[in-house]
Design a protein that fits this description.
By secondary structure, this protein is an all-alpha fold.
């Protein structure tokens, strides 16, 4: 427990001291929300009748939280392995679960702050988002989504050996996924083949569950389906993460 607490505290101090990390974690995704919110303000998606804001608010929120989870643990594992910190942890009584668990707690805190900021900005008069009555379901949805993308971050942090490679791999996966999963543009206005293709991406399922919880699009079965998809990806990515994890550069 002491090792878990120490790792969590060290991760927190490292995160808040880096102003660039703080900016890209919180302010950068908000810029997307503001830009898309202003561009599509007052407009509805013809295919569904819902406002563009109901798509972009939930989609950008999902992408921002997922992005933070992936980059946070990806960079940490790479840097700790390069600095031989993971090797020292391996020689201590601290289990691997303490390393992953400490990052999970930080990701939950970051995700909670992001959610409050995003929803708060989206509810401003210039945007006018009105959360649905089932918004409390957003909490378990976000927890499950963070776990899913944390596993993806473990894989990236295990195979990458430099900050540039972590950023390259993560951006290669997360940016196209954001566009193809409906984080920036409504999937309802996209071709049917693209909507089907997006089902193989975990961000699509997080988007669906978040939008159903936050804006009321779809019914409870859509939220449940999104959570089921995230659960499947968590199991698959978790199995791959355990296979690829490296304490040192060679093992």
């Amino acid at each position: 427990m002491s090792a878990y607490s120490a790792l969590t505290a060290a991760g927190y101090r490292a995160q808040v001291r880096d102003r660039t990390t703080v900016f890209f974690t919180f302010a950068f995704p908000l810029i997307f929300l503001v830009v898309f919110g202003l561009i599509f303000r007052g407009r509805d998606v013809e295919e569904s009748g819902y406002s563009y804001l109901s798509y972009t608010a939930s989609g950008v929120l999902s992408w921002g939280v997922a992005n933070a989870a992936v980059f946070g643990i990806g960079f940490t594992l790479m840097q700790w392995r390069a600095d031989d910190i993971l090797r020292m942890i391996r020689m201590s009584p601290a289990p691997l679960s303490s390393v992953i668990g400490s990052r999970f707690v930080l990701a939950l805190v970051v995700g909670a702050v992001q959610s409050v900021l995003f929803v708060g900005v989206a509810m401003l008069p210039g945007f006018g988002l009105v959360p649905d009555s089932r918004w409390p379901l957003l909490i378990p949805v976000m927890v499950l989504g963070i776990i899913t993308f944390l596993m993806l971050g473990v894989i990236i942090g295990s195979v990458a050996d430099t900050p540039e490679s972590v950023a390259g791999i993560a951006n290669f996966l997360m940016l196209p996924m954001a566009f193809l999963s409906g984080s920036f543009f409504p999937l309802d206005s996209m071709p049917d083949w693209l909507r089907k293709l997006s089902l193989v991406m975990p961000l699509r399922h997080l988007n669906d569950a978040v939008s159903g919880s936050l804006t009321g699009r779809g019914d409870l079965s859509d939220i449940a389906t999104g959570c089921a998809g995230l659960l499947v990806f968590t199991v698959v990515l978790g199995a791959v993460a355990m296979r690829t994890f490296r304490w040192t550069k060679t093992s």
